[in-house]
Amino acid sequence: MAGFPSRKNNPNLVGEKAKRPIPGIAIEKQVPIEKIEELIVKHKGNLSRVAESIGTTRHTMRDVCDRNPSLKQALNDARERWIDNIEESVLSRAEDSNDTALQCFVLKTQAKHRGWEQDDNKNVAKDIAAEAFAFVLNRSKNPAETNKSVDT
To answer: Which helix (H) or strand (E) holds 136?
Structure first.
């Protein structure tokens, strides 16, 4: 008989509604903590994705993680691993490319102890040059110069 597939023939066939957690029962009791930890690692600490996989909200997942120290630690670890991977990627790209802006960014954030820091006091020469250039461009607006031409 053609029609909808039967659950008897395929026990893994579960409707969307059946995948959702049962309201009023804690997520931790419906989904094993180990499974939530696996999802946290899989989704690199993105609680919205973890919640979507389980069928709940991000807010609920945040509450679950706050209540459970092992989940909280797994979340922190996953996010730290993600940041480590991004840092490694940026450093590799800075080494392999001619992107001087990226290289300066890396040096200013990672090599402060060697003097590569963004300090506004060190940019005084640039500021003086900019002010001098602005003065030259606006010379016709300088009241001292306009008065000299009127007096003579």
So the answer is: helix 124-137
